[in-house]
Design goal:
47% helix; three-stranded antiparallel sheet; 2 domains; 11 helices; Rossmann fold
Length: 300
């Protein structure tokens, strides 16, 4: 009996000892968890503060330009959707007019007319062929304060985009065009589409195949005159400019995009991606545009 009682007593104290140890261990775990949660919360607050600070630096100042986004060949204003949304969230006024893609002179004249009817100062942004359009349209415009070229070609006076494009070793566009015709005056004129099966590799190598296929199906033909007409006096000779060069651009060609941007005296930002860099990386492109907008805000 005594042995049984002693055994029971020993078990009792041993159980209490383990219970105390267990409670101590749980207490330590709780303290450590609380400390970890506090550190994580502080870290999240620091990250949020840093992100907010970075975002605030690129938020539209009280006086800021309207941002005009001009699309490129084979596209429409919808190609700017994600960039437009990003800039609007930063409180910028954004317009993205569509152009007919019927010729450099005609498209430039349309954008020049649109530009003159906008109140206040305007920062013009052009993607690809759109860069050539704003290069012409902004010349002599009293309210144009700057230019941003995104995967764009910026011709000098008398140059044709087709000739500039031919010098590229990175571009594979010309080998992947389909030649079509359309009614023009009393006759017909030539226009082009990109081969649908080649579109993803040429234009959208960093986009999901399904999305690239949709863009290929929705592309708009561009007239031969868009590439064969000589360019006029370039606005980049008198206006400050910025440029986004997509390192994997196989449409315009990263090498020519880079060289024409340098010739224009643009502040260049290189981003890894395809010709449709504003679709695949809209935030990075919007950052460049917002930086440019802030730099010219004192002119507004």
């Amino acid at each position: 009996m005594e042995h049984v009682m002693r055994s029971t007593r020993n078990t009792y104290w041993h159980g209490r000892s383990r219970s105390k140890s267990g409670r101590l261990a749980l207490s330590l775990v709780a303290v450590m968890a609380a400390a970890t949660a506090a550190c994580a919360a502080q870290s999240d607050q620091q990250v949020a503060a840093t992100s907010a600070s970075a975002s605030d630096q690129l938020t539209a100042p009280a006086a800021s330009p309207t941002i005009m986004l001009v699309h490129g060949a084979f596209a429409d204003g919808g190609s700017w959707n994600a960039v437009s949304e990003n800039l609007q969230q930063r409180n910028y006024q954004v317009v993205a007019p569509g152009i007919g893609l019927r010729g450099l002179a005609e498209d430039s004249a349309y954008i020049a007319s649109y530009l003159k009817q906008l109140d206040g100062c305007v920062l013009l942004v052009g993607h690809s062929y759109g860069a050539a359009v704003i290069t012409n349209a902004a010349t002599g415009a009293a309210n144009a304060v700057g230019l941003v070229f995104v995967s764009g070609l910026e011709p000098d006076k008398g140059e044709r985009l087709s000739d500039v494009e031919k010098t590229s070793k990175d571009s594979v566009l010309n080998a992947n065009l389909i030649k079509l015709t359309y009614p023009r005056g009393a006759g017909t004129a030539i226009e082009y589409l990109v081969k649908p099966d080649a579109f993803p590799a040429v234009f959208a190598g960093d986009l999901p195949k399904e999305e690239a296929a949709v863009l290929a199906a929705e592309q708009r033909p561009a007239a031969d005159a868009a590439f064969s007409e000589p360019s006029g006096v370039p606005a980049w000779k008198t206006l400050p400019s910025w440029a986004v060069v997509a390192s994997g651009d196989k449409a315009a060609g990263a090498d020519v995009v880079r060289s024409t941007a340098k010739r224009a005296g643009a502040q260049i930002t290189e981003i890894e991606g395809s010709h449709l860099i504003m679709v695949s990386q809209p935030a990075a492109v919007a950052d460049v545009i917002a930086t440019a907008a802030k730099a010219v805000a004192d002119k507004c």
